[in-house]
Amino acid sequence: MTAVPPETPPVHPEPVSQNASAAPPEPSPAAPAGRNAISEWTITIILLLFGTTTLVQAFVIPTGSMEDNLLIGDHLLVDKLAYAPAGPVSKYLLPYTPVRRGDIVVFRYPVDVRQTFVKRVIGIPGDRLRIVDKVVYLNGRPLEEPYKFHKTPYYDSYRDNFPSEPNTRVDPRAMEMLERHTRGGEVVVPPGQYFVLGDNRDSSLDSRYWGFVPRENIIGKPLLVYWSYDAPTHRLVSPGLNLEHVRDLAVNFFTKTRWRRTFLLIRGHEFRF
User: Fold this and answer.
1) Could you tell me the domains of the chain?
2) Beta partners for 188?
3) Which residue of the set 80, 119, 148, 221 is catalytic?
4) Catalytic site residue 228?
5) 91 is catalytic
6) How far apart are CA 159 and CA 208, in angstroms?
7) Annotated catalytic residue within 65, 204, 207, 228
8) Chain centroid to CA 143: how far?
9) What pLDDT digit, counting tens, does each position of 220-266 carry?
10) Is the CB of residue 80 less than 8 Å from the CB of residue 55?
11) Neighbour-count burial for 204-218, b at 16+ CB within 10 Å, e otherwise
12) Is 32 exposed, middle or buried, given 0-12, 13-18 or 19+ CB atoms closer than 10 A?
């Protein structure tokens, strides 16, 4: 709210000689102060909007496909500049990196770009991969994956031995991948595409079911968990204001917040061949 200066009684100036030049009136200090305040707030708002849409953005994990590394209810800060194309000057100032095997990435779901997914990159362009009895083979070698979890005791003919004939309904993109990009029992990742899997390997909707992730769909790299709250998926994905979630927060904020995960750094895994 803009402050209004108090009223002052009128002042009658002293008469001046006709030959004397009238001095210009001094500017009121209130006007510049008001303009400066408005300018500062405008710049602050622009920087905040720029930072939250261009540099860093917040996301929440709604499903368990990355358990037990990322949990349902983890709120992430995502670095949107990590994979940005380097400019002639910015490449010397900012740590741009290519998308690497083992990176955890946030991306727009190829089937519905309005949704945002988080998975781990397994194959980059040119890689050959297959899964045999739940073991991933990349370019002919088995991967050591200390980050992955298997939570079902049984083997699935498609999920755990890939590529193979689907035993469930898959997206047409996955069928195209199987038909056009399979060579010698291996999926070959085409240029500009990436193959991703969830760390909760037995319960993840990933590239096995909807195909590759185009490079332009990748938003950025998660930096840290800034807050983690134990909430079910339906509350986290519901559009608009979820009153049930609001009431739960009001009553259980301190008991359901996973305090040990606050400011937990998120790191990828470097594959060694």
Assistant:
1) 60-265 (2.10.109.10)
2) 128
3) 119
4) no
5) no
6) 7
7) 65
8) 26
9) 999 999 999 999 998 888 777 889 999 999 999 999 999 999 999 99
10) yes
11) bebbbbbbbbebebb
12) exposed
